[in-house]
Known about the structure:
D-Maltodextrin-Binding Protein, domain 2; 20% strand; eleven-stranded mixed sheet; Dipeptide-binding Protein, domain 1; single chain
Amino acid sequence: MTITVQRIGFPLAILGLFLLIGGFIYMINQAAYTTNLDSRNLSIALVGSIDSLAPALIDSHEERILASAMYEGLVYYDEESRSIKPMIASDWRYSADGKSLTINIKRNLKFHNGKAIKASDIKASWENSFSITKEWSNISMFLSIQGSQERLDGKTADISGIQVINNSTIKIGFNQANAAFIYMLTNPIFWVYDTDDKVEPAPGSGPYKFKENKDNRNFLFERNEKYHRGIPALGGIQTQVFTGGSEAFEAYQAGKIDYLDSLPLNQLNNIKENVQYKKMLIDKPVFSTYMIGFNVNKEPFAGNYLLRRALNYAIDRNLIIDEVLGGSYRAANSVVPLGMVGYQRDMRGYTYDPQKAQELLEEAGYPLGEGLPQLVLTYNEDEGHRIIAESVAAQLAELGIKVQLQPMEWDYYKKQLNQMNLSLFRLEWLADYPDPDSFLYSMFHSSKVGISNYFNYHNSQVDKILDASREEVKSQQERIKLMNRAEEIIIDDAPCLWLFQSTAAKMIGKNVASLQVNSMEMIDWYEVKLLKPSLDEESQGTAEEQKV
Length: 548
């Protein structure tokens, strides 16, 4: 009996020792894991190219989403309330006539290099961005500011309408009232950075700091430990830029990517049907519209709104979405996109109605397309644009309308578009700022002809209404009513063929939390977190690794 007890007691002692050691090792591993989790980089994949992270030189979504980790503006767009909220700014107020805007900035905010942010830095950032930007859409957002045209013409060294009142207050004076300007401040052209520091990219004030760039294909950001909203949850952001969507998706499938910013169209339906992947899919409409533009000052569209309407009724948008685009867009029936303040749900717009299209075509003087010269539809070379153009051409052919497709290299296409040399052309408009003014005033006010009004559209009534909307700084409700009225007139005039509202399609990893893509297709990187995998997931991962 004693021997028996001794034989049992020894293994129990050994077992107890193993459990003690195992528990100790587990605690060490857990501590190490937690530490690693706190310092682990979020791995993201972008598709395209990154030429610059400088706010003034950003000209693509990929550059904007990456640069937003290190730069921020005075305000930001809050998706939940669909309103503008303070970021670097603490508060602001318009004058009664809407011709000036005074902004107070938060105290004790610092750039990544430790320098305190002052009102003079904001003025310096804006003026520097204005002087080096290459995009007219950026320049146009400044043009309502007093002295901006003089600075553009080289007559002055600064923009007189941007006044530094003191270290924490800046005042903007306008040539004409501009109630939309506070929304414009969300655009990268108004992001703030230290112009005195000559490093590239210049230090910003965002949640992550620039660390490394390898051949514009691999970027590393480290967290800003002194960020004014608190210490970010991620250790950093590791970014890989892929030239193709398929290659990036393969990296995601291999478990190497925590956030995939772009998906191949031919994979969308498969992803939506996959039980595992559809849980990680982000699929939502964004403030971007796709259209075919008419130059209303060129034949055969000049003075012929009946023809322009006929073409709008002739296209089955849902057919293109389902058969060509993998369901990744939604049909557009208005200028202002779904989700934006001012979107009119009861707007009739143009739906597919071939009978109505035939009637209008006959009223326009072209029964069954007879007498209508061949239309030349121009687009920038891209497989997606090509198949959309082919579908539009095929549907118009059913009405007797002949269409020749004309692809162009991007830079040349952009030049032709800016010079308004094209009569029928592809256009995709991503909101410069989250307000209907970005669609209505930018694209259809006559003052924007040659800048962002590519349709050569002039309507004095629309101009007056949109001017009045910018003067309305007291009531947001009244301002929206004015823009709604302008939109109705524009749709009636049909200066373009509205096709789709774009939808963002992204993928996140199973351990990513609090990553939200807003309607501007932007992410608040400060909010993003990485969660600890469950024990089942860890075991499954180990088993999968052993199989490989």
